UniProtKB/TrEMBL annotation:
Protein name: Neurofibromin-like
Residue ranges occupied by any Ras-GAP domain in the UniProt entry: 410-475
Signal peptide from the UniProt entry: none
InterPro entries noted in UniProt: Ras_GTPase (IPR039360), RasGAP_dom (IPR001936), Rho_GTPase_activation_prot (IPR008936)
Keyword vocabulary terms for this entry: GTPase activation, Phosphoprotein
Amino acid sequence: MTGFLCALGGVCLQQRSTPGPATYSPPMGPMSERKHSMISMGPCDVYNPVVSVSSCSSSASSESPVSRFVDRLLALLVCGHDRVGLHVRTNVKDLLGLELSPALYPMLFNKLRNSIGKFFDTQGPVPINDTNTQFVEQTIAIMKNLLDNHTEGSSEHLGQASIETMMLNLVRYVRILGNVVHAIQIKTKLCQLVEVMMERRDDLSFCQEMKFRNKMVEYLTDWVMGTSNQAADDDIKCLTRDLDQASMEAVVSLLAGLPLQPEEGDGVELMEAKSQLFLKYFTLFMNLLNDCSEVEDEGQAVGGRKRGMSRRLASLRHCTVLAMSNLLNANVDSGLMHSIGLGYHKDLQTRATFMEVLTKILQQGTEFDTLAETVLADRFERLVELVTMMGDQGELPIAMALANVVPGSQWDELARVLVTLFDSRHLLYQLLWNMFSKEVELADSMQTLFRGNSLASKIMTFCFKVGSITQPCHE
């Protein structure tokens, strides 16, 4: 019955575009609860991922049966019953990950995000306990199953709620667990989830994708241990090698086309900070390659289990080379100066590795025109040309599109930017003509022209503030 409700729960969220005939709903409880049985989900749960489910308590959607149903399933993910607890937890995890209606994905993402976010609400240290760790592990398994699911309709609903905050909080919690066996296993599963997430990147929505991916790379590279792991137990060594492999596979997917973004407030220039960040990652990858070579040499000298472990390093080495290629490909301007010297390194293996990396980025079609000294100025110049682009009839498609989509709270800044750009191109007259025409078109009466808090009014105000740039308009 629970699986049936999971699979068909999406019908409770169907929006009615036009009023239709009344539908019979059988009585299912007291009248106070029955009146909500036919109410569909409101937009705050499904179509606005920024608003949490708990903040919509005043609407019918947060009180709907399907919302309470999902809450109860999440509570059962950490069921602690002595006899049937494990069975319940396993079944609920599989139902949510494999049977849940795609229409319920946004609601589930929001509820998981809110639940995990509570771990970080307190002022003190993050509460690390068996229940929280169990919930995190269950969440990782559910998310991986959902993203692995390519059934019809899943892509449509995956992007209706952002999972950035939830993913970052998952990593932040797991990295506190240390390096015990269970923690290593959870980290490995989380890395596999990140890789799947990047495979479904086009179906997901990100608020700040580049910043999010940079942060994930920072966290996951901390888990790459290489030969720094001095564990005496061969089983733990195997687990750490699995974690190295999973971490590097996830990092490879994250670094594809990713320009490095250093943390703000480092006190150094952007290019210098990018250069230092590139060197940090590139050095880590080179050290990991050296570790692979050393272990492979040991494996050839001794037999048995060590030889079997060394054979598994071929895949790790391949992932590391791919990570270096993706890193250099997306950051040639800041990284080539650090990596080009490896082509002349005295160690033959190092030179061969660099040639392999260089070959891969050339095959990927890396553009080296970003190495020009004027690259930043050229990029801004192209951006200005795009914003000030004018059509055959004097229309300004990009500027007017910005005027339509930028929220009112940012109109002052937009007015300043538009006036500055168009004045630098001697196109201020065209900007004012288009903005004023739009103002007249939308005005209810002549008395309301330029009296509202509109973008056209703000542009006109900024022109008068500057003063000198209004001369072309008077002429």
